[in-house]
Please model this.
Amino acid sequence: MITMNDVVGDADRFVAVCRDHNLKITPQRTAIYTMLRNCRDHPSADQVYRLIKKDFPNISFETVNRTLLIFASIGLISIVESTSGVRRFDPDLNSHHHMHCIRCGKIIDFQHAGYDALEVPEALYEEFPVLAKRVVLHVICPSCLQSGEEGSAGGVVA
Ligand SMILES: [Zn+2]
Ligand SMILES: [Zn+2]
Model:
């Protein structure tokens, strides 16, 4: 649920983090960040590029990709796990968990206090400094479930 406060706070954070890292605030960068914030499905650089091109027809994929990597390197967004080998970007830096659709690759956020409180086994801590934790559920999303049902009703027999 996005409230007006979140939106205002977001824009402030964007400006503050960019200033901190001497990153010039350009209309393109602002648009890329805003678009990412409004995207709830952890887009890849390619998806961001396709969307942003509608407003900035001359922007190149390289520029979009580089911008996303810069955003990630200054902590504005994060790069999240992906099983397809394509980098996926996440603008939500608060603790949250992911449902990963194994059919279409969609990554959906969810909150669960019980998972936030999960304890890392102490033996692990000793060997591996744990920097963050997130629960990833492998799921089949509603639209894939639906198209799967339609597909099987179509009756392709192998
Ligand atoms: Zn899916
Ligand atoms: Zn996420």
About this structure: The two ends are 44 Å apart (CA to CA). The chain has a mean pLDDT of 86. The helical segments are 4-20, 27-38, 45-52, 61-73, 113-116, 122-127, 142-154. The domain at 1-92 is CATH 1.10.10.10 (Arc Repressor Mutant, subunit A).
